[in-house]
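Lab notebook, bench 4. The sequencing result for the construct came back, and we need a structural model before the next group meeting so we can plan mutations. Quick request posted to the team channel:

Model the 3D structure of this chain.
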Amino acid sequence: MQLCFIWVKKFKNLENFGISFSDEFDFQFDIAGGNLHRINKNPMPHLFGDNIASITGVLGINGAGKTNLLELICRIVNSSETLRIEYLVIYRVGGNYYQSTNIKHPISADFYISGSVSRDEMEGMDTVFFSNVFDKNFIDFGDAIADVSVNNKNNPRTLARNRETRQSDFVNDIEFFQSSEFESLGLSAPPRIEIRIEKFINRHNQVSRQDAVVPVLNYLAEIRKKNRDRGKLYLVRQTIQMGFLKTLLERDTSEKRLVSDMVHILEERPNIAFEELIAEFRERCSRHNNTIPWSSNLLLHDALTILLGLESFLKEKHFDIDETLTGPKYIFTIDFDPVESFCYRHLACVIQTLRFGSISWTGVSSGQKAYLNLFSSIWNGVDSYRFRSEKKRTTLICIDEGDLYLHPEWQLEFVERLIKCLPKLSEGTVQVVFTTHSPILISDLPHQCVVVLNKDPEVSADLSNRDAQRHKTFAANLYDIYQYSFGLNHKRSGNLSSSYLREVFKLLDKKTLSQQDTESLSLALSVIDDDVVKFHIHKRIVSE
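Done. Here's the predicted structure in token form:
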């Protein structure tokens, strides 16, 4: 299935809005007459490979509705959601075109439509929505859309709904690095990991103050007091171990079995060494196959195994603590070895349970991180569909400002990477719609694949322009793309420099220059880098 055209009467700021996603045809719909037209686009070479159904790049100034468009697409293809707006959808299966609409009056098309179906009868697409933008614009798509956006990951409703099954981005990244798809992408995993933890562990909090866990917390506090002067590696290891155990026992709210096991150990051996306590506790947990209370995906026995070998593991991975700053946190880095993913997954689970504990990638640029996050998130989104149906369906991937945080050098590779990587991530045909502010990205798309949104409803009402009206994009001048896409009004530099140039031009237009005018032009020569302007300034100074 390929999505070809969407029209809606009104969706947020999009009114009487139609948009084509086909690189072969434009579609135009007149709601008043009920007429649907299909217009041939100029043919284009086979640039995207056999597994890319189409790529559509959406440009536009802020407020034009780029994110709203992606939300509309996701809601249209999500057949389980009831739409209370008038809409028309044209899609293609094989060589046949179908329509889905709730418009009451007849629609007349100038091309053959094989049938009209309701949205819940549409073949459907595995849809992934990705966005790096965090603006608390929480969009609830339900379970039908794989929403891997930063907003959704931080949505309180999402966090509450997936409290026991949710994995962190870090753990998802590790699983992605282990996949055959990642191996085929030609990307490298980050070489190092940065971990931040609080140096101090509070003995009690509101939950534990009157709880049965108090004897255990008192024991941990005494152990901590005896070892304050040990080395940094020892203290970091002990802080992680104690912080995890404290959180574990305080969150053992069901049968209090974990607390009971720990208390019994201390009653039987009040002077037990800390490492031995963890080993004995692990042995008792293994009898019941306990999972970590806040993560049903991980066995407690495995997490405690990581704690027991933590110091040697950190040392083996070239533990390096940042001692340049004094503060309430230990900040250190270790090597990342994808072969030992089991250890890193459980270490991440342990670290993220600590108060203000964090674990992240380091040793790569922000652009590399953004790339890895993009493809890892999409891979996890696609993966969520793999066991829902035996039938292989087209994957629709909507990317909102995927170039965010990417250095221009990385933007040059963006479209090429999408073409290469996305079919491998999805194991099938892919349709891509992405929004961007970057003319670099758009310069890799033929004009047949580009849509420009405009705030003016009269202009944006029908985006299916004919080829003669389309803007030049593929291998085009980047400034020209900026100019028509973002309303620069023919400005070739920033406001400050443009204003300064206007003052310089006023001086150049004077019939006679004063001494002060000449000095001002001399100063202008030292800052203006436009060769033509500098030539005229120099010529005027010499002539005086």
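The radius of gyration is 30 Å.
Will bring this to the meeting.
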